[in-house]
TrEMBL record:
The lineage of its organism: Bacteria, Pseudomonadati, Pseudomonadota, Betaproteobacteria, Burkholderiales. SUPFAM superfamilies: Cytochrome c (SSF46626). Keywords: Heme, Iron, Membrane, Metal-binding, Transmembrane, Transmembrane helix. Coiled coil: none annotated. Its cofactor is heme c. This is Alcohol dehydrogenase. It comes from Bordetella genomosp. 4.
């Protein structure tokens, strides 16, 4: 009997070793699809090479590469931007063509491996703060164009800053098991049943635009799930809520048109809302440079995304749990209404309908009706400033009220706008306001 138990334990141990080995192999494998032919920057003469570089410049803006690879006031693409996460802080690396500090020693195959398979030139696994989980869908032609452009930027000898991660997340080898669970490399296939515009929009949204990096919920290991879709979620490390990009009429884009979405991407303002917080930075550094056709394609694709099962319809409540919203008390609504009339109605109007593109509506605004009130609290505390874009170079701003109103008053005001008119989002407490205020100091 003892020998049987020993053999059983040995078999169990062997099975565990095999399982670990299989997971590690899955997590370190490359895409099995054949590697497409490389498009050389100089192929076809100088004119064709310059065209490839300009295409890459456009794609670099579309992917907002400078957002993670350029510190404010620093040299473009020289790295150093901190990326806060629950696991520690990562830093965007130097991707200039410097041969030692940057990617000057890389070729187009190495760059494709990073985007498509999430591996560095030496084969080491990259942390998914670099969104290769989305970039894997980028075509080889676009990867080569990006690389051709990056080879033209000014080299920088600034070394890439080492990541500052907690144990065990600083053990890069463990990424193999994360990848085995959450990463499937592969270029996005064309959906033949949809239009060319829809397919282009999907390619931009799910690929280089990496919208899921902010607008998809994440689990405790920082991974998004395809089944969740772009249903909104907290932006890890930034303490902002990214709203749903589905057709949900309460929390998402159900009341928007494709042209409304395109307008927000290119100008920062639209009929239903104004870009603020991290999205304002995206518009400023990235989406304002979209062509009209690409912006409209993204809007067309996003308008096709259905609300997820269990999300509220136009007549339902909008509590964080999807159940009945917590209604503010009569006293809170009365106090909030008076504060709204005193501080907000002049711009946003008595019924929260807003006034043109300068002052967005609060009625039906997904920033106001989001499951989390954090964006609304932050905007009242710190003010709101739309990005200055080529199409809207002098945007209107909203002054901060954090120095004027206390936590109880801001809680009453935000509760009022979240539960007035047709809005039915849950009440806000003074404790929630205090937490946001303290975190922003």
């Amino acid at each position: 009997m003892k020998r049987i138990i020993q053999y059983g334990l040995l078999a169990l141990f062997a099975a565990c070793v095999v399982a670990v080995g299989v997971l590690y192999w899955i997590g370190t494998r490359d895409d099995a699809a054949p590697n497409p032919a490389v498009v050389q920057a100089g192929a076809g003469g100088a004119a064709a090479g310059q065209q490839l570089v300009e295409q890459g410049r456009y794609l670099a803006r579309l992917g907002n590469c400078m957002g993670c690879h350029t510190v404010p006031g620093g040299q473009a693409y020289a790295g150093g931007t901190p990326i806060p996460t629950p696991f520690g802080t990562l830093y965007g690396p130097n991707i200039t063509p410097d041969p030692q500090a940057g990617i000057g020693g890389w070729n187009a195959d190495d760059f494709w491996q990073a985007l498509h398979n999430g591996k560095s030139k030496d084969g080491s696994l990259l942390y998914p703060a670099f969104p290769y989980t989305e970039y894997t869908r980028v075509s080889r032609a676009d990867s080569d164009a990006l690389f051709a452009f990056l080879r033209t930027v000014t080299p920088s000898s600034q070394p890439s800053r080492a990541h500052e991660l907690k144990f065990p997340y600083d053990q890069r080898g463990l990424l193999a098991f994360w990848r085995a669970l959450y990463f499937e490399p592969g270029v996005l296939p064309t959906n033949e049943s949809q239009s060319a515009q829809w397919n282009r929009g999907r390619y931009l949204v799910e690929g280089l635009g990496h919208c899921a990096a902010c607008h998809a919920p994440r689990n405790s290991l920082g991974a998004t799930r395809a089944a969740d879709g772009l249903t909104g979620g907290m932006i890890v490390g930034l303490d902002w809520y990214a709203p749903a990009l589905t057709a949900d009429p309460v929390r998402g884009l159900g009341k928007w048109t494709a042209h409304d979405i395109a307008a927000l991407l290119r100008t920062g303002v639209a009929q239903h809302s104004t870009a603020s917080g991290p999205m304002a930075e995206v518009v400023l550094g990235s989406s304002q440079y979209l062509s009209e056709a690409d912006a409209l394609a993204m809007g067309t694709y996003l308008k096709s995304l259905p609300p997820t099962q269990g999300s509220p319809d136009a007549s339902s409540s909008n509590s964080p749990s999807g159940g009945a919203a917590t209604q503010p008390s009569n006293a809170v609504m009365d106090r909030g209404g008076k504060l709204y009339a005193q501080h907000c109605a002049q711009c946003h109007q008595d019924q929260g309908q807003g006034s043109g593109l300068a002052w967005p509506p609060l009625a039906g605004n997904p920033t106001v009706t989001a499951p989390s009130p954090i964006n609304a609290i932050r905007l009242v505390l710190d003010g709101a400033y739309a990005p200055a874009t080529a199409a809207n170079p002098r945007p209107h701003g909203m002054p901060p009220f954090g120095q004027v109103l206390g936590d109880n008053d801001i809680a009453a005001l935000v509760s009022f706008i979240r539960f007035s008119w047709d809005n039915r989002a849950s009440a806000v407490t003074a404790f929630e306001v205090k937490r946001v205020r303290d975190a922003s100091r």
